[in-house]
Design brief:
This protein is an all-beta fold and 342 residues long. The protein has one helix and 29 strands.
Length: 342
């Protein structure tokens, strides 16, 4: 069955040598330009032109697998969480590491608040702790004036003393994803205990909890720019064989669940076209579904391993997938000519 979109060959982005567990886009920054960052188990997150997939640069400094990578909305900063027990903040123009945030265990999740050049970052992982770091304090506490510290780490090194823990003792599993909503006072955690939690940062209190049915995959906020009205904001979650969709601005407001016959590792929603994309964990395929009718419309083959991450570009005209096979693919999601698709 066709989705009504013209089929186009995906663009394949090479460069990584290990699996790609996560990727994310910036917002649109200048003249329809946006960027894509990928995390990889080869220790080396990469920055790309989001429209073409062209490589821009590699952030060098982690000594372990990078599990998650995000860009600030204006694409001036990048944040990465790694198995080397650290998170790092990078200048995307120079590639310089600005902050190294030390942890006691693997960092699986990282998030910036919305807005340009953010001053805070949230981290989580095997510690089972949600931490908020003040990057201005981290920078001011640096004793090194050079980009590289004597111990070989780049930028300023902030210990956990420079962070605030939110909800101590509440998470009972690894924090796999963090979403900072458009409300800077509300943050969402997705945890291996199969629970989604909404937090009020003003009081460090738990607002709401939702129990998932199945192993947690991705948890991402899908925000698409709309020329005809306000941007949509939907929280999309993959767990087991089910895709969950919550209002992105209201705690625990479940809009819909879609059950599939397959184990899914990742999902994303295109709210304007009312279609969802899923990446398989038990196979290598990308599937497109009708959000309202819950019918499978298309199956896209091309990856050679599970599809761990899927995300729409900020204009919704393409989506990117990251796979166990070490590649990133860009898939056109519009009928008009776009980017390198003529």
């Amino acid at each position: 069955m066709s989705s009504g979109l013209s089929k186009a060959v995906p663009l394949t982005c090479h460069g990584h040598s290990r699996p790609v567990p996560h990727l994310s886009f910036s917002s649109i920054v200048d003249d329809d330009q946006y960027y894509l960052i990928s995390a990889c188990k080869d220790n080396n997150p990469m920055l790309r032109d989001g429209l073409t997939g062209d490589w821009i640069g590699t952030f060098i400094g982690h000594k372990g697998a990078v599990w998650q990578a995000r860009l600030s909305s204006d694409a001036t900063l990048a944040a990465t969480g790694s198995a080397d027990f650290s998170a790092k903040i990078w200048d995307t123009h120079t590639g310089e590491c600005l902050n190294t945030l030390s942890h006691n265990h693997i960092v699986r999740a990282i998030a910036f608040p919305s807005g340009p050049r953010p001053h805070h970052v949230a981290t989580g992982g095997f510690e089972k702790k949600l931490r908020i770091f003040d990057l201005t304090r981290s920078a001011s506490s640096s004793t090194s004036s050079s980009p590289t510290s004597p111990d070989g780490t780049n930028g300023s090194n902030a210990s956990m003393a420079g962070s605030t823990e939110v909800g101590a003792g509440v998470h009972t599993g690894t924090i796999k994803s963090i979403v900072w909503t458009s409300d800077s006072n509300m943050i969402i955690t997705a945890c291996d205990d199969q629970k989604i939690r909404w937090w009020d940062l003003r009081s460090s209190s738990l607002i709401a909890t939702h129990q998932l049915d199945g192993k947690l995959g991705t948890c991402e906020l899908n925000t698409l720019s709309s020329p005809s009205g306000p941007s949509s904001s939907i929280l999309s979650i993959a767990a087991g064989k089910t895709a969950y969709f919550f209002d992105g601005n209201t705690p625990n407001q479940l809009l819909k669940t879609i059950k599939t016959p397959y184990e899914i590792a990742s999902t994303a929603l295109h709210a304007q076209q009312r279609k969802i994309v899923t990446g398989g964990s038990g196979d290598t395929w990308v599937r497109v579904y009708d959000y309202d009718e819950e019918k499978e419309l298309n199956v896209h083959k091309g990856h050679h391993g599970p599809v761990w991450s899927v995300n729409f570009s900020p204009d919704g005209k393409l989506y990117a997938t990251g796979s166990e096979d070490g590649t990133i693919k860009l898939w056109k999601f519009c009928n008009s000519t776009y980017g390198l698709w003529k």
